[in-house]
Amino acid sequence: MNVYSEILNIIDLKQEGSYWDFKSEWYSKGKKADLLHDIMCMSNNLENRDAYIIIGVDEENDHKIKDVKDDENRKNTQMIVDFLKDKKFVGGIRPTVYVEPIIVEDGCIDVIVMKNSNNTPYYLNERYQSIEANNIYTPVMDTNTPKEKSADIHHVEYLWKKRFGIISTPLERIKHYLCKPVEWLDAPTNWETVKKYHMFFPEFTIEYTLEDDGDAYQYYLFNQTDIRPHWREIRIFYHQTLLSTLEGVSLDGGRYFTPTPLTDGVSFGRFHNWDIVFKYFIKDTLPYVIHQFYYVPDGDEETTSHNRFEECILIFESENEKELFKNYVIKNWVNKENFSINIWLPHFSEIDGYIMEEFKKQYYNMQILKRMLSEFRRTFIR
């Protein structure tokens, strides 16, 4: 479910909950402490998920929409980020937030989205107005911890357990650990796989095979110096239990390794056949985390191969952004010529059994889509 659908469903409930809060209007200049308090509470929610402050819903009037388009105190993502920047959070770690405007039937509402994170609990080491230093705030059902108090000890313990990965599933834990490649060590090789294990939790391992798994070509291979395909299998283990497998590819003659990107597309007709196909990653998902994990910038061949690979794919901030972008493409593909000026194509060597014009088309369309994504983000900047 995307953010738009979820927010509409939440509004229909006509009550506040443990990971969302309603506000009829934006916080005024005199309520900066309230804004900070609410962001901290929602970021420390006990549901282990994204949380929302939904602005433009009037609880006192049967949760009717109150258009925020002309609200003089309205803020965008950058303004919220700037507001949090100088607050003295412990460890300098601040919640990740963004503002998502949503057009509904009766006007526009804004949603401050607090992204789920393992960096909990968020709290200050220096007092800010009425926000006490070292107090940990969290929502319980529809009630936030008062500013002058700290959350109950068992809720605080939960937030610390979340930070240390104790409440997570093995797959969630290894995803968290993979975000810190320096904590992974090389395991002895058996000449069949390249394996690493976590230095503190060696029961978690990740490996990929060395034997080629097929010889199929993809359009993004042609942007490398060495275009030969070397497909691998990535395996993630907890003890001896196989948690997940992904396809990987060794690019440019082995100079760079990455999981293969996912595939999606856009249809212009009523049928579900894709008229445009694209490859992509979504940030904070397991494939993207592993994509980051295996990249070791060397300023030379690996960096070049990595950069050439990313020139051929889309990287989205979220699933919601991907879906919104697809709608944008459907509406604006008729103007694709505006995004196709001076597109450079690599050399596509003839490969037996393949229609090379199709590879060229995929590569060309991807360059248009990358430019469209940049324009989409400029136009719909949060």
UniProtKB/TrEMBL annotation:
Gene3D superfamilies: Schlafen, AAA domain. GO terms for molecular function: ATP binding. The keyword Transcription does not apply. Residues 16-127 form the Schlafen AlbA-2 domain. Pfam families: SLFN_AlbA_2. Keywords: ATP-binding, Nucleotide-binding. InterPro entries: Schlafen_AlbA_2_dom, Schlafen_AlbA_2_dom_sf. It comes from the Bacteria. Coiled coil: none annotated. This is ATP-binding protein. The lineage of its organism: Bacteria, Bacillati, Bacillota, Clostridia, Peptostreptococcales.
